[in-house]
Amino acid sequence: MAEQNKLEKIVALCKRRGFVFPGSEIYGGLASTYDYGPLGVELKNNIKRSWWKYFVQDRIDMTGIDGGIILSPKLWEASGHVANFKDPLVECKKCHHRFRPDKLKDTSKCPDCGGEFTEAKMFSGLFETTIGATEEGLVTYLRPETAGAIFANYKNVLDSTNLKIPFGIGQVGKAFRNEITTGNFIFRTLEFEQAEIEYFISPDSDWSSIFEKWLEYIYGFADLIGLPRKQFFNNEIPDKERAFYSKRTIDIEYQFPFGQDELWAIAYRTDYDLSRHQEASGTNLEYFDDTTGKRFIPHVIEPTFGIDRTFLAVLSEAYDDNDGERTVLRLSPRLAPFKVAIFPLLKNKPELVEKARSVYNELKKHFNVVWDDRGNIGKRYFSQDEIGTPYCVTVDFDTLGESDSDKKDTVTIRDRDTMKQERIAISDLKAFIQKSLE
Ligand SMILES: [Zn+2]
């Protein structure tokens, strides 16, 4: 399958089955915005939950916060975003489309209409907003990254928990960037979700080995959500291109259908962030190490993840229509929007429907379950394969024990990937599905 063609097919599937819709579509759309539909919100939540469990809850040295989207503008001045979060832009004098000159192949004329460009002007990537109704309202910004609130709350977390260095704080949430370059579906959007970790270490620690351990731990997450390691590339950022305060940065790139691009990243940022916030806020952010009696500003290692990009990577990896007959999303059961679909063999037989309802109601207590009684069983399988439901359960006349009493209270369970069907007791269903989620 041609790769760009694959992206188009994924975009079409997302719209048709309710994973991702173009933003504000009934008003003609709004560029670089998308809405997650009924299945998209499930898949995205499952990605976020898996991330949170793996990176925050499973680790003794991690905790989490959920900071604000609107923070003091002083924080973004201290972090350098207000001064530096800017891109040069040129505007076409004819069609008024804007471009980043560094992303253009030919800077002499507009690629859309051939028109002449204006001089390049600096354009802030921050979304500005004003607090208060009066003209003298306080100007601040929608956060361009989630990390800010972690630094701002580092001291609160220390004081309210029994964590000691080394420890980390994780956060998942929305961030906003007034980006001019757009395209490739949900890869780059104005509003997006990030998962970030600030891992605080002593300046005396062996940062290089802690960095390596985090990098390997990050790849464990790729394994967990079904992204093959061979699709990744560690782009080691050379000295000259790194931020001056960072001693090592790796852009963790992924082979998307449209090409290789940044999915996640990890950086060793020294004590730059907390030093800047201490200086700008006037609040002492030193850590006191009660075993050595030393005081210091912690250094940080920062793993960062794009959730929407992860969503796109997961979908690209799972999408399979190679046999041309059926489309299957080979999602890990852990991420699948529905874990199991329940079908009554026929919808006009009340005794079948009633029995299937009881199976549905029981499993619903434990998993996200979907009911389907439309068309024939083959069509229902087709429909569930397309959205990645790992198992389909059919309640038939054997379930009722009408012809063979040995089969009473058993159902057919069909596996999405192998398409094999087996007969299992209703009482074993919960354990069977549970096992697939481990
Ligand atoms: Zn133009």
From TrEMBL:
It is an enzyme of class 6 (ligase). The keyword Aminoacyl-tRNA synthetase applies. Residues 8-337 form the Aminoacyl-transfer RNA synthetases class-II family profile domain. One of its GO terms (molecular function) is ATP binding. It comes from the Bacteria. Pfam families: HGTP_anticodon, tRNA-synt_2b. The keyword Aminoacyl-tRNA synthetase applies. PROSITE patterns: AA_TRNA_LIGASE_II. Belongs to the class-II aminoacyl-tRNA synthetase family. This is glycine--tRNA ligase. The lineage of its organism: Bacteria, Candidatus Yanofskyibacteriota.
